[in-house]
Request: fold
Amino acid sequence: MKVLYIEASPRGEYSYSSQVANAFLDTYRAENPDHEIEHMPLFDMDLPAFAAEGANQKMDNIIKQFTGQPPLGAEGEWGGVLAEIDRLKSADKVLLSSPMWNYSIPYRLKHWIDLVVQVGASVMVNENREYIGQITGRPLQMVLASGSLYEERFPLETDGMKTDFQRIYLDHIFRFLGFTDIRLIKVQPTGLPGPHLDEAIAKCKAEAEDSAKKF
Ligand SMILES: Cc1cc2nc3c(=O)[nH]c(=O)nc-3n(C[C@H](O)[C@H](O)[C@H](O)COP(=O)(O)O)c2cc1C
Reply:
């Protein structure tokens, strides 16, 4: 059994999402001492490049998929794409912790998403031209932190400036990949330090410990 832990905050011990994810992992390790945990600290590791070559290969591979040709092999930047998809596929369970940055996600997490979300590799197209995510049968535990408080629903136009594209985008992109069992711990609002925040973090850690026992 392998858990892939994707950590999207660069703030280390100051990160609330990482603190709660670590509480989750401490309990998970205690419950499952023989399980492997692969840690991907996205800001402290190299990710394969995905620029002009990769983007052109992506579009080429989509045409191949739609026209029934064999997929692209592991050449150039596409090699990095396939390696990251393999890494994700090698996991039986996925834990993702992420901050909200500018109502969405940090760019390093978007970089990883732009690598692993690929029609013709991690998402296939069927005869009805429907997208079928290939990363199935794995639970995803998300731990998402934000400075302000957001309701857990689809964003509304009336949300004005405070619109949550973080949760809804991550939920959407992982469903596109094939995930259906998506669990969420929201750490919010983290903006103002003080006893209220300490209490909220302690509650989130307890929730994480409980969730880890059922993961
Ligand atoms: C670059 C940056 C952008 C941010 N943008 C938002 C935002 O749009 N909305 C919000 O509620 N909080 C925002 N915040 C606050 C963070 O979401 C908050 O500090 C959260 O705890 C970060 O997660 P972490 O503690 O795991 O790093 C931002 C923080 C940073 C550093």
Remarks:
- Residues 195-213 form the longest helix (19 residues).
- The chain is about 40% helix and 15% strand.
- The two ends are 12 Å apart (CA to CA).
